[in-house]
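Human: I would love a firmer grasp of how sequence relates to backbone shape in proteins. Take your time, and here it is.
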Amino acid sequence: MTLPRRLRAAGAACLSALFLIACGDGGEPQPESSGKPRVALIMKSLANEFFINMAAGARAHQAEHADRYELIVNGIKNESDLAQQVALVEQMMASQVDVIVIAPADSQGLLPVARRAVEQGIVVVNIDNRFDEKALATMDLRIPFVGPDNREGAYRVGLALAETLEPGDEVAIIGGIPSAFNARQRAAGFRDAMAEAGIAVVTEQAADWEQAKAATVAAAILNENPALDALLCANDSMALGAVAAVRQAGRRGGVSVVGFDNISAARGLIAGGDMFATAEQYGHQLAVFGIEYALQVLEEGTDPADRKTPVDVITAAQL
């Protein structure tokens, strides 16, 4: 792997070296580089509490290690804005960052620009949503993934739910963006758990990670399946929408809801009995895990490899 240039021209203009949150609209003029490695964190929707927490964790980590690296924090306006995320990567390439840590909006659509970044000598580390492994192989591209096993996490949440159900009970899955690897893996994990428990998955529909869309999808599912026992949602934002639909349908207490991410709103619903469980993937540290590994690759010339991070099931008993 070609390592990036560590020293930049003293007069080169750059984007933020410290705590800029950009949404693809550009930024204010920034100071010259200090010569320390410059790390760009590129996330998905900054409207999602999960990514707000991720950004906060990264900023706190940089503040504690200000002598080691500089940080630029970027995010897009919604989960599916692929074009904006591509533009952010291109901006970071133009500003000659040393590292890009990215939670891609799409598992394949970001790969061409990610490859250009690697070819430029930037260390690229993938977090949250794994790049498509077959596409990586086809492109002869090695980008390490640092994050949890989404299938395992969803499987464990599903098993916890299954302990409250009976064989033959009916559930539905509300998934994320179908092209996203983590969406597919979480849905697969839910299916694994339901099959093992003998519980029927009557339908599986996408709500693209969005709360409002999930509320609409869940309402239709509830209307079409009067015997439904649970809604398994691939993230907590969609679980919030599902809870709203369950309440609107007058089926609170009769239809369980699970999610994935352990955002504060979900914890509140679990404590109040409106949600049964979620998966904690330590989102506030997820970017930190990626940044630390990327800096190791940068400093030591480490051959990049995937790294698995923890995931745990959260129910009322764990609150």
User: Anything to note?
Assistant: Residues 1-31 have pLDDT under 50 and may be disordered. The chain is about 40% helix and 20% strand.
